[in-house]
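haha ok so turns out i had the wrong file open the whole time. this is the CORRECT one, sorry everyone. sequence first:
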Amino acid sequence: MTGNALDRLRKICLALPEAAEGTSVHHPSFKVRSKTFVMFADGNGRPAAWIKSTIETQTELLAEADRFFKPPYLGPKGWVGVYLDHSPDWTEIAELVNDGWRLAAPKKLLR
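then structure:
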């Protein structure tokens, strides 16, 4: 399951302009230029994406605790974690990834 989830997440992330894959703390991560907008983690036995977000969006999504969580370290900055192991909504995840990319991308790239 972890491989499938990462493959799908990778496809979504790398479809965005100037997105590149790297690693951060030994986990796959996706950046636009030098700014990370998504990290993949499976440290607690559940594959998950940590996605750059706003505090407002994070607060809204955390109401669904079975699907979303506040990731350690980045959670206080508005990042949101989404579990990828139980029939995730890939359309919604793609929207969140796109929003995260827009938050990380330089303004010139958004034009």
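Strands lie at 19-24, 27-32, 35-41, 48-51, 68-69, 80-83.
again sry for the mixup
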